[in-house]
C-alpha cells in the first residue's frame, strides 16, 4: 500500500517537475529551434515545432558577417582571465578572513559587497577617461581588470564561506608540524577547498561571460567579446528572428555547455554560506 | 592546479591582450542596416586594391550612437571611421572633432553629392562626413488594397486623404491595418516621425527664443490626429513599432500604407524578402495645405574622428565606399534597385536607375525637404525631424517616451504634451538657452 | 588562537583585495563627485583640459526636481521588489519540488538552471521579439489560439514584462541556493514532525521555512545587488518608455542621451545613496543571520 502510494506520488512529482522544467527551459529551446528555421517559418502562424525543413543557413549567414571565433576567443580570455586573476587575489584574502578573523572581518566583507552597488552607468565617464588615459580601451587586459574588480567581492565572499567550513583543527595540526603559511595554504587548505574554488570559478565565469555593459562600452574591434557580437543582430532591417536566434545560440552555447557539464558542481557549490 | 600554474596561466592569458591593430588596418563603427552589411561584403575588394585592412564594428543603431558619442567626447580614439548622421555631423564638426573632408580627390567628384545631403553634413560650408546613403520619407502603399477600397492615391496626398484611405483599407478580420507608422520611443524612431509630421500641421519644437512650443494648439492637433488615426487603422501595439517592426509588417502584407524612410522602398519591392513586392506604389509624404510636407531628410554618413593615426587610409576608404564606382559595383552584382540611394546626383541621371520604380519619388522627396526652413513658422534651429543642437537627442528621447505612453493609452495627449513642455523647458534652461 | 605573526600575515594577504577594491571604489567615486559639482556638457565643448565651471549643488537640485526622479525611484523599488518576491516564492516551491524523488532529476535540474547561463542581452532580445511581439510573438500566437486579443506586453504591461524577464533569469539562482539549503535539512526532524501528525502546512511554516531563512536572506542580498543596476533588459525592451525608467536608466539618459555629465554624476551619487540605504537595511538582516 505504502509502496503504491509512493510510486504514484513519484509519478506525480515526475510529471509536475518535468512540466515545470520544460516550461522554464522553453525560451531557450525555442531560440535554438528557431535558429534552424527560415525567416518565414520563424514567424509562421501557427508556429511550427518540429516538422519544418531544418536549415543551417542562418549560421552560415551569421558566420559570414562576423567572425564568430574571434568574439568567442575574446569572451574566453576575458571571462577566464578575470576569474583566474580574481581567484589569485581573493584566495589569500578569504583565507585570512576565515582563519584569522578579527572584529572587522565582517565589516570588510560587507563593505566589499557594497562596492558592487556603484551603478555602472554613473561611472561610465570616469572609467572611460581612465581607460583613455592608460591606453586600455579595446584591450583584453583592460576588460580583464574591470571584470575582475566587479566580481572580486563575490569571489571573496564565496571563498570565505567555503573556507569557514574547513575545521580549524586541521590547520592547527599542520602548523604544529611546522608548515609555513604558504605550505599551509598549498598542501592543506587548497585540496580541501577545491570543490569550493571550483564552483566559485564557475559562477564567476558565468557572470563575466554575461557582463554586457563594460564589455560593450570599452571595446571596439580587438577585444570585443560575444556581447558585442550579439549587439549587431538585435533588430536589423527586415525579418530577423531566425538570424537573431542563430546568433543568440552561438553566444550562449559555450557557457550553456560548460554549465551543464558542471551543474553538479554548481548545485553543490552555490551556497554562499547559506547552509551551515 | 598549483598556485604557480594558476599564476602562469593568468599572466599568459592577460598578456595575450593588446595585440592586433597593425599599421595598415582601419577600424570602422557602423550601423547594422542592410546597405552597410552589404558594403562589408565588398571590403575585400578594397583591401585587395589598397592593401588596407578593415575591421568592422557593427552595432544596432542605439548601441552605435551610445558608443561613438562616448568615444568622441572622451577622445577614446577607438575608431578611424564612424558612421554618423545629419544630426551629429554639424555639431561634432563645430567642436572640431571631425577631420574636414575638403581635400577629396577630383575623381571622387564632391560636387556630385546631392546639395541637400552635402548641406546637412557640413558646418560653415565645410563637409565633415560623406553620405553613404541618403533618405527622405514617403508613402509606400499597397496598390491592390487601394484599388479594393475604390480609391486612387494622388501623387501628393493630404493627411485628410491618408486618414480616409487608411480607415477604408483596414480589415481587422484579415489582419490588415490601413496604416503603419512609427510610435516607438526614441528621438530617431517615433520622435523623428512625429516631428516631421508636426511640421505639416504647423507645429514647431521651439520659437525663436528657444521656448518649447508643446503648449501650442498645433501640437495637440498633430498628436490627436495621429492617435485617432492609429487607433482606428493602425496595427496593435503600434506604440512600440519602429522602422524595423513596420518594415516586417509591411513585408508580410499587414499594412495598407506605410510612411517611412525612402530606403525602405528597395526592401518592400524585393521579392526575396517581401510578400507584396509587386503591389507597392509610392507617393509624396502627406501635407495639410500649410506649405510643408511631413517628410524628413537624413543621411548615414562616414566621418573621420580628429586625432586618428590613420587619417589618410580612412579617407581612402571613404572615397571608395561613397564613390560612383562603388554604386556601379553594387549595381553590377545585385542590380540597380539595391544600390545605396540618395547620395549622388549622377545616380538619378543614370538611365538604368531611372527605371527603378521608386527612384524618382525618392529624389522628389529628398528635393522637397528643406532643413534650413523646416516649419511653417520660423525657428532658430536647422533640421527637419530634429533640431541640430547638442541637447536635442536627450530631450527628444524623453519627449517621445511621453508621446509613446500617450499612444499606448497610459496618459492623455494633453498630459503628454504638458510633460513634454515642462521637461523641454527644464532641459533648455539647464543648457543655458533660456 | 591566532598569533601576532599570523595576524600580520593575514593583513598582508588581505591587502591586495582590499587595496584594489578601495581604488576601484574611490577613484571613480571621487571623479563622479567632482563632476557632479561641475557644468560638464561635452557636446558644448566642455572638457577636463579646458577646465569645468563650478556650479555648486545645481546638478543635485535639478536631478531631484525633475519630474522623472521620484517615478524612477518608485520604478526601481517595484522592479527589484517584484523580482525578489517572484524568485524567492517560486524558488522555494521549485526547490521543494526538486528535492522530492522523481525520475530524471538530473535532467530537470539542468533545464531549470539553464536560464542563468543566458546573457541578459540575449534573453531580453529573445523575450522581446520571439515571445512578446504583439504580432509575431509566440505568446500572441497562443492568445489568438484561444481566441483572445494578444496582450501588448511591452507597452500595456511593460513593467510586469520586464519583471517577468528578469525573474526568469534569476529564478535558477534562487532555486539553486534554496535547494542546497533544503537538502541540508535534517530529514529525521521532518519525519518526526510527520509522525506527530503535523499537517504539511505546519511542517512548512514551522520547520522548512525557518530553516531556509538564512538562504533566503542571502538570495535577497545577492540579487538586490545585481538587480539595482539592471540595464540591458530595459535598454533592449522598452528603452525606458512606458514607466520602466529606473534610477539607473534615468542616469543613463542624462549621461549618454543628454550628454550632461554633471547632471548624470549627481544622479549617480543619489543612486549610490539609495543603494547604500538598501544595503544597510539588508546587511543588518544578513549580519544577524551570518552570526546565527
TrEMBL record, chain A:
Domain ABC transmembrane type-1: 72-262
Compartment(s) where it occurs, according to its Swiss-Prot or TrEMBL record: Cell membrane
Signal peptide region: none
A Pfam family reported for this protein in Swiss-Prot or TrEMBL: BPD_transp_1
Top-level lineage group: Bacteria
GO biological process, one term: transmembrane transport
Keyword flag Cell membrane: yes
Main subcellular location: membrane
Gene Ontology cellular-component terms listed: plasma membrane
Family the UniProt entry places it in: Belongs to the binding-protein-dependent transport system permease family.
Name of this protein: ABC transporter permease subunit
Source species: Oceanomicrobium pacificus
UniProtKB/TrEMBL annotation, chain B:
Signal peptide (UniProt feature, chain positions): 1-23
Localization per record: Periplasm
InterPro entries listed in its UniProt record: Bact_solute-bd_prot1, SBP
CDD domains xref list: PBP2_TMBP_like (cd13585)
Listed SUPFAM superfamilies: Periplasmic binding protein-like II
Superkingdom to which the source organism belongs: Bacteria
Record keywords, A-Z: Signal
PANTHER family: ARABINOSE-BINDING PROTEIN-RELATED, DIACETYLCHITOBIOSE BINDING PROTEIN DASA
Family as reported in the entry's similarity comment: Belongs to the bacterial solute-binding protein 1 family.
Protein name (Swiss-Prot/TrEMBL): Extracellular solute-binding protein
UniProtKB/TrEMBL annotation, chain C:
GO BP terms in the entry: transmembrane transport
Subcellular locations according to the entry: Cell membrane
GO cellular component: plasma membrane
Keyword annotations of the record: Cell membrane, Membrane, Transmembrane, Transmembrane helix, Transport
Major subcellular location class: membrane
Keyword Flavoprotein: no
Transmembrane segments: 12-37, 77-98, 110-127, 159-182, 203-228, 234-252, 264-286
Membrane topology annotation: Multi-pass membrane protein
Alphabetical list of Pfam families matching this protein: BPD_transp_1
Domain named ABC transmembrane type-1: residues: 73-282
InterPro entries given in the database record: ABC_transporter_permease, MetI-like, MetI-like_sf
Family recorded in the similarity comment: Belongs to the binding-protein-dependent transport system permease family.
Protein name: ABC transporter permease subunit
Native source species: Oceanomicrobium pacificus
Organism ancestry: Bacteria, Pseudomonadati, Pseudomonadota, Alphaproteobacteria, Rhodobacterales
Amino acid at each position: 500500500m505504502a509502496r503504491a502510494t509512493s510510486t504514484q506520488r513519484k509519478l506525480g512529482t515526475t510529471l509536475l517537475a518535468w512540466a515545470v522544467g520544460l516550461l522554464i527551459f522553453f525560451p531557450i529551446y525555442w531560440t535554438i529551434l528557431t535558429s534552424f528555421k527560415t525567416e518565414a517559418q520563424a514567424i509562421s502562424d501557427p508556429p511550427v515545432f518540429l516538422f519544418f525543413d531544418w536549415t543551417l543557413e542562418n549560421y552560415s549567414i551569421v558566420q559570414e558577417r562576423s567572425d564568430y571565433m574571434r568574439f568567442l576567443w575574446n569572451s574566453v580570455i576575458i571571462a577566464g582571465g578575470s576569474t583566474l586573476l580574481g581567484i589569485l587575489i581573493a584566495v589569500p584574502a578569504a583565507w585570512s578572513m576565515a582563519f584569522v578573523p578579527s572584529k572587522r572581518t565582517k565589516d570588510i566583507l560587507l563593505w566589499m559587497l557594497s562596492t558592487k552597488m556603484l551603478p555602472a552607468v554613473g561611472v561610465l565617464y570616469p572609467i572611460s577617461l581612465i581607460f583613455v588615459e592608460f591606453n586600455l580601451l579595446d584591450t583584453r587586459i583592460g576588460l580583464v581588470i574591470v571584470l575582475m574588480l566587479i566580481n572580486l567581492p563575490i569571489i571573496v565572499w564565496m571563498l570565505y564561506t567555503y573556507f569557514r567550513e574547513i575545521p580549524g583543527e586541521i590547520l592547527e595540526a599542520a602548523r604544529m608540524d611546522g608548515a609555513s603559511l604558504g605550505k599551509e595554504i598549498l598542501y592543506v587548505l587548497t585540496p580541501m577547498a577545491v570543490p569550493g574554488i571550483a564552483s566559485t570559478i564557475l559562477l564567476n565565469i558565468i557572470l563575466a561571460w554575461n557582463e554586457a555593459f563594460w564589455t560593450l562600452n570599452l571595446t571596439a574591434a580587438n577585444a570585443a567579446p560575444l556581447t558585442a557580437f550579439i549587439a549587431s543582430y538585435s533588430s536589423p532591417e527586415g525579418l530577423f528572428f531566425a538570424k537573431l536566434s542563430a546568433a543568440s545560440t552561438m553566444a550562449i552555447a559555450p557557457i550553456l555547455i560548460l554549465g551543464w557539464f558542471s551543474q553538479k558542481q554548481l548545485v553543490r557549490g552555490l551556497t554562499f554560506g547559506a547552509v551551515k | 592546479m598549483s598556485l604557480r600554474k594558476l599564476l602562469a596561466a593568468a599572466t599568459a592569458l592577460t598578456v595575450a591582450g593588446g595585440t592586433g591593430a597593425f599599421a595598415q588596418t582601419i577600424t570602422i563603427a557602423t550601423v547594422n542596416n542592410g546597405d552597410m552589411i552589404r558594403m562589408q561584403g565588398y571590403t575585400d575588394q578594397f583591401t585587395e586594391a589598397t592593401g588596407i585592412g578593415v575591421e568592422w564594428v557593427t552595432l544596432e543603431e542605439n548601441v552605435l550612437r551610445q558608443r561613438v558619442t562616448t568615444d568622441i567626447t572622451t577622445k577614446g580614439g577607438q575608431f578611424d571611421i564612424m558612421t554618423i548622421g545629419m544630426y551629429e555631423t554639424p555639431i561634432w564638426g563645430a567642436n572640431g572633432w571631425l577631420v574636414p573632408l575638403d581635400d577629396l580627390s577630383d575623381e571622387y567628384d564632391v560636387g556630385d553629392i546631392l546639395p541637400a545631403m552635402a548641406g546637412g553634413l557640413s558646418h560653415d560650408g565645410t563637409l565633415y562626413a560623406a553620405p553613404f546613403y541618403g533618405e527622405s520619407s514617403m508613402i509606400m502603399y499597397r496598390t491592390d488594397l487601394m484599388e479594393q477600397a475604390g480609391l486612387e492615391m494622388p501623387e501628393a496626398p493630404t493627411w485628410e486623404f491618408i486618414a480616409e484611405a487608411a480607415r477604408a483599407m483596414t480589415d481587422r478580420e484579415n489582419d490588415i491595418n490601413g496604416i503603419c507608422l512609427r510610435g516607438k520611443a526614441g528621438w530617431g524612431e517615433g520622435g523623428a516621425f512625429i516631428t516631421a509630421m508636426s511640421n505639416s500641421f504647423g507645429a514647431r519644437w521651439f520659437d525663436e527664443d528657444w521656448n518649447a512650443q508643446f503648449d501650442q494648439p498645433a501640437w495637440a492637433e498633430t498628436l490627436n490626429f495621429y492617435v485617432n488615426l492609429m487607433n482606428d487603422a493602425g496595427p496593435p501595439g503600434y506604440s512600440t513599432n519602429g522602422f524595423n517592426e513596420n518594415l516586417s509588417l509591411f513585408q508580410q502584407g499587414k499594412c495598407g500604407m506605410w510612411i517611412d524612410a525612402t530606403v525602405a522602398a528597395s526592401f518592400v519591392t524585393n521579392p526575396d524578402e517581401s510578400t507584396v513586392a509587386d503591389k507597392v506604389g509610392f507617393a509624396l509624404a502627406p501635407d495639410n495645405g500649410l506649405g510643408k510636407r511631413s517628410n524628413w531628410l537624413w543621411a548615414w554618413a562616414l566621418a573621420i574622428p580628429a586625432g586618428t593615426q590613420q587619417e589618410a587610409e580612412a579617407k581612402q576608404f571613404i572615397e571608395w565606399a561613397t564613390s560612383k564606382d562603388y554604386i556601379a559595383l553594387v549595381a553590377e552584382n545585385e542590380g540597380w534597385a539595391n544600390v545605396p540611394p540618395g547620395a549622388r546626383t549622377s545616380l538619378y541621371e543614370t538611365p538604368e536607375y531611372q527605371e527603378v520604380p521608386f527612384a524618382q519619388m525618392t529624389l522628389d522627396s529628398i528635393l522637397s525637404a528643406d532643413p534650413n526652413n523646416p516649419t511653417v513658422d520660423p525657428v532658430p534651429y536647422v533640421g527637419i525631424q530634429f533640431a541640430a543642437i547638442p541637447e536635442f537627442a536627450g530631450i527628444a528621447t524623453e519627449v517621445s517616451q511621453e508621446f509613446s505612453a500617450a499612444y499606448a493609452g497610459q496618459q492623455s495627449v494633453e498630459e503628454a504634451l504638458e510633460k513634454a513642455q515642462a521637461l523641454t523647458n527644464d532641459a533648455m534652461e539647464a543648457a543655458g538657452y533660456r | 588562537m591566532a598569533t601576532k605573526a599570523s595576524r600580520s600575515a593575514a593583513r598582508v594577504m588581505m591587502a591586495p583585495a582590499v587595496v584594489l577594491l578601495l581604488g576601484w571604489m574611490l577613484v571613480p567615486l571621487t571623479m563622479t563627485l567632482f563632476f557632479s559639482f561641475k557644468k560638464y556638457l561635452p557636446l558644448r565643448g566642455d572638457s577636463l583640459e579646458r577646465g569645468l565651471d563650478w556650479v555648486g549643488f545645481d546638478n543635485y537640485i535639478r536631478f531631484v526636481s525633475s519630474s522623472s526622479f521620484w517615478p524612477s525611484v518608485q520604478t526601481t523599488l517595484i522592479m527589484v521588489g517584484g523580482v525578489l518576491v517572484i524568485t524567492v516564492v517560486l524558488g522555494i516551491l521549485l526547490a521543494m519540488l526538486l528535492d522530492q524523488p522523481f525520475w530524471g532529476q538530473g535532467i530537470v535540474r539542468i533545464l531549470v538552471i539553464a536560464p542563468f547561463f543566458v546573457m541578459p542581452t540575449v534573453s531580453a532580445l529573445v523575450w522581446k521579439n520571439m515571445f512578446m511581439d504583439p504580432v509575431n510573438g509566440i505568446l500572441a500566437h497562443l492568445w489568438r489560439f484561444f481566441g483572445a486579443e494578444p496582450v501588448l506586453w511591452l507597452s500595456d504591461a511593460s513593467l510586469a514584462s520586464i519583471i517577468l524577464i528578469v525573474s526568469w533569469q534569476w529564478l535558477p539562482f534562487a532555486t539553486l541556493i534554496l535547494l542546497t539549503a533544503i537538502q541540508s535539512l535534517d530529514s529525521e526532524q521532518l519525519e518526526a514532525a510527520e509522525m506527530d501528525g503535523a499537517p504539511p502546512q505546519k511542517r512548512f511554516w514551522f520547520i522548512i521555512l525557518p530553516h531556509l531563512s538564512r538562504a533566503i536572506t542571502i538570495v535577497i542580498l545577492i540579487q538586490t545587488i545585481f538587480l539595482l543596476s539592471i540595464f540591458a533588459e530595459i535598454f533592449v525592451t522598452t528603452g525606458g518608455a512606458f514607466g520602466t525608467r529606473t534610477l539607473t536608466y534615468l542616469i543613463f539618459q542624462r549621461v549618454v542621451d543628454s550628454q550632461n555629465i554633471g547632471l548624470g554624476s549627481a544622479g549617480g551619487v543619489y543612486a549610490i545613496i539609495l543603494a547604500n540605504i538598501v544595503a544597510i537595511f539588508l546587511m543588518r538582516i544578513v549580519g544577524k543571520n551570518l552570526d546565527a
